[in-house]
Amino acid sequence: MTRAMRWLVPLSVLPLLALLAYGFRTDPRDIPSPLIGRVASPFALTTFDGAPVTLAALRGKVVVLNFWASWCNPACYDEAPVLEQMWQTYRDRGVVVVGVDMQDTTEAAQAFIQRFGLTFANAPDLQGKLAVEYGVYGVPETFFVGRDGTIRAKHVGALTDAAVRAKLEPLL
């Protein structure tokens, strides 16, 4: 191996290392959703209680669409009480919370709902079609849909009280 080649091989690795360093410093929650400002994709789901829930029927209300799973621990476990509290606090102000369970078994999902005493609508996304339409790449993810049916905000990760207020108050 020539002297120049001995220097060239290690130097060729530097761009790869720089790319990896950039990737580790980037927070995936900071990636803006291309859906913000667009009309929310319509859906028709059946809740675990057997009741229908459609986006069309919720027109005129602020809709909080939360994608979750019982196996998502600790994030979904951390945010479940926050979602229930949000529902109890804001439902009289025209806010509807809809939980969408994905990639889960019915038994595990129902046990999760019962464990946290969730009283807002929760429905399975059996084929994962709704998650694909909303571009969900992990759980939990939450979309805030304005009264006009437009997606106004997205939150990746477990919701906190502060995040709820920051995203929801401007929509009321």
Your description of this structure?
The chain is built from 5 helices and 7 strands; from the N terminus they run αβββαβαβαββα. With 172 residues, the protein is of the alpha/beta class. The protein has one domain: Glutaredoxin.
Characteristics:
about 170 residues, alpha/beta, 5-stranded mixed beta sheet, two-stranded antiparallel sheet, about 20% strand
Indicate the topology.
Layout: H1 3-25, E1 44-46, E2 52-54, E3 62-68, H2 75-90, E4 95-102, H3 106-116, E5 121-125, H4 129-133, E6 141-145, E7 151-156, H5 161-168
Parallel strand pairs: 3-4, 4-5
Antiparallel strand pairs: 1-2, 3-6, 6-7
Task: Provide a concise account of the structure shown.
The chain has 172 residues and is α/β, with parallel strands linked by helices.
Bin the strand percentage.
15-25%
Binned, the helix content reads 25-40%
Domain tally: 1
Radius of gyration: 20 Å
The spatial strand order of the largest sheet comes to: 5-4-3-6-7
What does the overall shape look like?
elongated
The secondary-structure element order is HEEEHEHEHEEH
- Please identify, by name, the CATH architecture: 3-Layer(aba) Sandwich
Which CATH C-level class is it? Answer: Alpha Beta
Tally of helical segments: 5
- Classify the fold: give the CATH topology: Glutaredoxin
Low-confidence stretches: none
